[in-house]
Design a protein that fits this description.
three-stranded mixed beta sheet, alpha/beta, seven-stranded mixed beta sheet, 10 strands
């Protein structure tokens, strides 16, 4: 049996500092039968110029990542789709690991380099989401399943991955959770930049809340924190930092939500 072609889809916008590392990690996969597709949102830096050194399959699309990913899926020739962000680095056996699951849809854990205290807190938070289908949305799909789901909701640029998870749930499909992981290079976390980003996403959340009013509260309360209370107790400083970050995120997102709702 011939091995399946996997299409790696990377949505970009002004990612010149990250894109080389991301695409290089794609090329270094242990699994070699894959194609790289970059869908750029009209970058004003050297993102596209750098991407051309790794793939010829570069397309332009806006206004947000949902539309970019959907275009990438349309252009993909692979039987499987892997969606990654430009600031992510794939570990060597990631694709091979994803292909080992029969479900055809896989969630991938993330690890964040410990550049400073806030980065350590973010990495600690990510570790709590392992095997959590509520928060950890899938990134790896059989293409025919992704097409059946009609892709990402192009009207969402916040919670678009959770929206896709809800539609998977309606089909009674539970994502697998692979052991390999993505290294998410968020960089040294800047609290003002974090709050600005969450405010931006919060402006779009009204669409998700309107569609899934009952589920929205679960994402805020995050039951995984209660399930992992022992781990949280054992790491008091990281936990305090994590909850400080979450509080700032919630305040910023709520402010953005109110701003977007009033408009």
């Amino acid at each position: 049996m011939n091995p399946s072609l996997v299409s790696i889809i990377v949505a970009t916008k002004n990612e010149q500092k990250n894109i080389k590392r991301c695409l290089s990690s794609c090329q270094k996969q242990a699994y070699k039968k894959m194609e790289i597709i970059v869908v750029d949102n009209f970058s004003e830096d050297k993102t596209v110029e750098i991407a051309k050194k790794f793939t010829r399959k570069i397309f332009l699309k806006g206004p947000e990542r949902s539309a970019q990913r959907n275009l990438g899926a349309q252009k993909a020739k692979g039987e499987f789709l892997l969606f990654v962000d430009a600031d992510m680095q794939l570990t060597k056996n990631l694709i091979m690991d994803c292909l080992s699951y029969k479900s055809g849809v896989v969630s991938i854990p993330e690890k964040i380099p410990h550049l400073a205290f806030w980065s350590k807190c973010r990495d600690f938070e990510k570790s709590l989401y392992a095997n959590d289908n509520l928060i950890s949305a899938p990134r790896f799909f059989k293409k025919n399943l992704f097409v059946k789901l009609k892709g990402y909701n192009k009207n969402l640029y916040a919670a678009e991955d959770w929206d896709l998870s809800q539609r998977l749930k309606k089909l009674d499909i539970t994502p697998a959770h692979c052991q390999s992981f993505l290294i998410h290079h968020e960089g040294p976390l800047s609290l003002p930049e974090l709050m600005k980003k969450k405010f931006y996403y919060g402006r779009n959340l009204k669409h998700y809340v309107k569609k899934y009013p009952k589920n929205s509260l679960s994402y805020i309360l995050r039951p995984t924190f209660f399930k992992n209370y022992k781990k949280i107790i054992l790491h008091p400083f990281l936990s305090m930092g994590m909850f400080t970050l979450k509080t700032l995120e919630y305040i910023s997102a709520a402010s953005g939500f109110i701003w977007g709702y009033l408009r």
